[in-house]
Design brief:
The protein has one domain: Alpha/Beta hydrolase fold, catalytic domain (Rossmann fold). Helices cover 42% and strands 15% of the residues. It is built from 15 helices and eight strands. Strand 7, helix 14 and strand 8 form a beta-alpha-beta unit. It is globular, with a radius of gyration of 22 Å.
Amino acid sequence: MVVKASLVFVVAVVLLTYYCHEPVPPDVPQPTMFAAMAIVMRTARHMANIGEYLGIGTEPTNLRYILWALTRAGQKVMTLGTNYREGLECTDTVFDGVSVRVYEPVSAVKSDVKVPGLVFIHGGGFVLLNVDMFDELTAHLAKELGIVVVSVEYRLAPEHVFPAAFDDSVAATKFFLQNADKYNVDRTRIGISGDSAGGNLAAAVTLALAKEKRLPKLKTQALMYPVLQAMDFNTPSYLDNGYMNILSKDLMVSFWLWYLNNDVSSKELLKANNHTSVQLKKSQYAGYVDHKMVRPNLRPKVVTPVKKENIEFPEIPNIATILDPRFAPLMADDADLEGLPPTFIMTCEYDVLRDDGVMYATRLQKAGVRVEHDHYERGFHGFLPQFRVNELAGNAMDNLLAYLKKNL
């Protein structure tokens, strides 16, 4: 009996050790925290899939609610005894049908001089997270810069597929530009920012509003580790980092499909880059994701211009949308990049999305846009909200604040 119990214990320990083992880059700051975050994400996905298998919700909605619960618990611990909203008036309201949270520094409200403004769009793969989970970050931006910050609560996929999140982000930004006086904001000094999927939406909004002649131009855009393209899932950063559970290649492709059509039956096609035709791989759009922008020693792609309406696609619902800049801003034509506002792009070495940001920075610079590319060799996806407890994330926050202070 004792032998059997001992054997069961040993097996349990081995299985637990195996499950909790998480590959960690050798130079990543706070490796224990990195591993813990990755294990939490991996466990949450397993739980979400088990729930779906048992007929309880779907993988994306289960994953959302699991992460909401875990994040709320973590936030309560991390902010215990602090009042990070001190000095701010925070209001949940609606901008043209879109829920937003407005952060107004008391000093700005009482000031005789109008202050800058910033639209912030949170990340979460278009599927997860909400303004509550970025509350400390957005409050910090408002307090440190003395500006009015509007955090957008856009509709989430898969309940609301593209273009719902884009439409909400555009509507909220337009409303803020049109009603800036109400918040004592200088409408000519409003910027936009976002992280991950929020970086996608911020970039897409910037492209869309650049063509609006009846609105003031956005002063700047600040994109933190943005996801910008769904055409090539074999970029060097996907190949280097696709196994990392904080944001794996498998999860990122799932996010794209939940946002596109809520049909993950074609996930393996996308992961293998078989969702694009040979014709498309040789078109000008392939040049927009040319790996030479990341690895300069490579030969540039030889591309053949082709009209979008003549491109052939496999039988995947709405797959042609991957060429729509509202969905994937890196697919914007060169002419559409010209005249965009000064841009800040943050990228991290340990991130499948690293090369999306590098490519966009390169293309914007070639189009004559002033770009500040802030790259973190030891950084990983989603690290910025840890700015109070992670030194590297703290440095990244300081650099973001310095950029916004100078460019708003």
